[in-house]
Design brief:
This protein has helices at about 15-30, 40-50, 60-95, 95-120, 140, 145-175. By secondary structure, the chain is mainly alpha-helical. It is rod-shaped and about 105 Å long. The mean pLDDT is about 90.
Amino acid sequence: MRPCSSPLEGSRLPSLLAIHNAFVQQTELGWDPVIQGHLSSLWKEAFLANHTAKQHLSQQQLISIADRWMNQLINQLWLFSKRIWKYRNSVVHGQAQQFHLSKTLSGLRKKVTALYSRFQSDPFMVPQAHNFLFNKPLEATLAMDTESVRAWIRSVEEALLTREHREQLMQANHLL
């Protein structure tokens, strides 16, 4: 991985040199920790080197302002990190997952509706012993949870395969 170079590299202006030094030290410490509020102490020096006050301030007042600035920066980074964390969790565990589940259930319900429609037009599509799968009204089957709907569809598909297998056996017996 290519090391990150400072955009101010080579500058001789003290104010820009302070930013460059902070950038270089932060690069050594790492940029991922910035999101957690782990900043190089040289950022405070860079702030002091670049801060312009409208009125004359004592050194102690400047240091106090720089300390407040660092504290606010770290607090904002923590808030930003928390927003990223919440968003990531909503994607991994929440909203995106709920969307996927509702989309999956919608697809399963379409399949159930198609199978009921097919059964109404051809009640012999499954062996008579499996007709009980269609005893419930369509609305009741559609109201089942995702796993129950999947199980119902698998049962119907198994019944379809059973009928197909029986027909193949009958055809084979007739040919003998």
